[in-house]
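Fold this sequence, please.
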Amino acid sequence: MHVTLDFESYSEADLKKTGAWRYSEHPSTEVLCLAYAFNDEPPILWHPGISEMPGALFTAIEQGAIVDAHNVGFERAIWENVCVKRMGWPEIEAHQYDCTMARAASRALPLGLEQCASALGLDVRKDKRGKQLIQLLCKPQKPKKKDPRTRIQDPELLAELYDYCLQDVRVEQRIRRELGALPAPERQVFLLNEKMNSRGITIDVESVHNAIAVVSQVEQELTAELVEITGGRIRTANQVAEILDFVQWKVDGGLDDLTADTVAAAIPRAEKGSVERRVLEIRHSLAKASTKKLAGLLAAVCVDGRVRGLSQYHGAFTGRNAGRLVQPLNLPRPVLGADPEGLVEAIATRDPDWLRMLYGDPMQCVADALRSMFVAGEGKNLCAVDLASIESVGIAAIAGEESKLDLFRRGDDPYCAFASDVFGRPITKANDPRERQDVGKVGELAFGFGGGVGAWRNFDDSDKFDDDEVNNFKNVWRRKHPHIARPPWDQAVKDGEAGVGLWYGLQDAAHEAVLHPGRQVEAFGVKYQVRGRWLVCTLPSSRNIVYYDPRLQEKINPHTDKTEVVLTYMSQKNGHWARIDTWGGKLAQGVTQATCRDILVHGQRRCDPEMPVLMTVYDEIVTEVDEELGVDVPVARLLEYMTADLPAWCAHWPVKAEGWCGKRYRK
C-alpha cells in the first residue's frame, strides 16, 4: 500500500533558518492538520479538533505501507519529533519513506510542488492561497493596534488551510502517478541520503560562539575606522552605492560592483596608502568570515548538538547531491595554511589582536576555521576520502584518451603535465609551483568540457594572461586531447583516419535521437533516446540522466556569428523554469559528472554499513568511526571501499583517492 501525506504546522521557529529537524524539535511546534490518502483514493483530513486518531493510517504504517510526501524530510521530522514523541503515534521505519520531490529531481523537473505540477502540465494544481494562509496561521504575528494578537486561530481561515492541505495531497498523488517509482538502485541511493540527513554531524557550538565574538569585535573596529577615514560619508561596509561612488574614480579601470572577487581584484589597482584602497580592504575583510554561515550553524543545531538535513538528493540533474541549510559544499577553502586545531584554540581567546599577531587578518582566521566547526561526536573520529581528479579521469576514460589515462596510471600530476605542454619544458610541483597553479591547474579545470577564455576567467579573473594567451593555452589542451576535443572539420576526420572527439560525438548522437524519437543512438558508450517528454541519456554505468522537453532550434553562434542547430531543453536556471541550450562540451560535462557520481555512490553503498556516512562534499565522503580504531586503519578501509572492487564498467579506470582521519573536518 502507498500512503501520501502532508502536514501543516505552527511554530515560533523559522523553518528556513533552522531546517526541518530543529524546527520539529522546537517546543512551540505543533501539528495544525494532517491530510493523507491511501493509494489513489480521495484524501482524508485529521486535525487536533477531531477526537478520533487516524487508526486506519496507523494500521497501514504498522503493516509496512510506503509513506510518500513532497520533500519527505519535513514530514519525517514532524512525525518523529512531534507525533511519535509527544502524541504517541507509531514509528515509521526509515525504509518506508518515499518522496515525490526526489522523483521530480531525478526527472530534471522543478523541485517545488506547484512548479513541478505546472511543468508537467497537470490539470490539478497547488492552491496559490496557501502562502497567505501559512503566513497567517503557521507563524507568529507582529501585534498591531487594530489586531494585537500574536497568533491567529480563526476557524474560517483554518478551514481554508485544511482544504489547502488536502489539495497538496491530491497534487502529490498525481505527480506520483505521472512519474512512477524511482528505479530500485536509485531508491537505495535516496534512502542512503535520508539516513545521512537523519544522522547529521556534530557542530562545535562553543567555537562557533567564539568565532562570532571575534567577528563582532572586528566589525566594530573596522566600521569605526570606515566612518573616520571617510568623514562619515560611509557608515557601514554594506552601503554599496556610497562605497562605489567613493572609490570609483580612484581605482584604475573602475569597478562595476562590490562582489568579493571584484573587490579583491580592485584593491591592487588602487593607490597604495590611499583612503580608497583602505575602504576596499575593509569591505573585503568584512566579507570574509561569512557571519551568515556562523549564525546559520547555530540556528540549525539540534538538541543533541548535531545539524541535520544538509543534503538534497539529486540536487543537480547529474544526480549529485546539493547542499542545504549551511551549504557544506560552499565552505571557503582555507588560505592561511594554519593547523585547524591551533587556529580554533587561537579563536577561543576571542582576541583579534592575538589572531593578528599569529596569523594576520582575524576575519580570514574565522573564514579558515569554518570547516573546523564540523567535528566528530564523542568517542568518534571523522574519516574522509576524496576521489582524486576523478572528473579528469572520467572524461578521459569515456573518450578513450589513453595517453591521459596512462598519466594517471603512472601517478603523474595532470597539472604539471599540461603546464609542461604549454611551456615546452618539464614542469614539476616542487620547482615550478606558479606555472603548475596558474596555467596547469586552471587550464585543466577550464578546458575539459569545451571551455575557452570565459571558462578560464571563471577560475582566474586576474590579468596575468590576456585573451590571446589563454586562447593559445586552450589550443594546446585541445591538440593534446584529440579523443575529447577533435572537431568534425579536423583533417584526420575528413580523411577518414579518425573520428570526432567526445564533445562532437555526443552532440551528434543527441541531435540524431531528437530528430528520430524512439531511436537509440550511441556514441562513446553513451546512449541517447527520446522517451515521451524526455531525452534519456544512458550512462556507461547504465543509469539514466534526462533532459526535459528536448528540441532542436536554430540559433546564432555568438563566437562565429553563424546560424547553427542547437539542442534546447527546459531546466531550472537562476530560480526560473526556462528553456536553455546545450552543446557537446556541456553534454560531455553532464555525462562525466553523472558517471563520477555513480563511482562515489558505489563507494558510499559499500562503506555505509560499517562507516556511517555523515555528508558528501562533491567527490568526498565524510564518515564517522570509533576513535579506538586510530587514524590509519579507517582511512585504509575507506580508501579500499572507494577505489577497490569497482563495477565492471569502470574497473579499468585509474581511480585513486586521498584520505584523512581526525576530530575536525578539514580540506
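The radius of gyration is 27 Å. Residues 127 and 163 are 9 Å apart (CA to CA).
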